[in-house]
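Page 47, continued from p. 46.
Same chain as before, 118 aa.
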Amino acid sequence: MKTIRGAITADYNTENDIKKSTIELLEGVIKENSLNHDDIESVIFTVTNDLTKSYPAKHAREMGLENPTYMCMQEMHVEGSLRKCIRILMFARMENRKPNHVYLKNASRLRPDLSRES
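Result:
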C-alpha cells in the first residue's frame, strides 16, 4: 500500500466547479500512477473553508470510483494560505512503484518539488 498526495484549486465555490476540479485531480492521479479503479483503497479529501457547495467524495463516486472509502474534511485555516483548494491523500495498492504526486492549477505552487502539471 502506498499513499499519493495531490491538490487542485477550484475557480469558484459552485457544485459544478468543485465536481470538475475533483474529477480532474482524481483522473490526473490515476493516470500519473497507472492505477485501476480497484487499486484505490481509500481517499481522504480536505477542502479550504471557502468551498462549501459540495462534497468531493460525491463526485468521486459519480465518476465510477464506488468501492474506495472516503472522508471529507475541512482543511486547517492558515492566514495567507491558498484559497479554494481541494487536497487528497489517496491510499492505493502499487507494488514496488514510487507514487507520483499530482498538484494542478494554482495548487502547483504548494509543492513545486512534487508538482506534475498535466
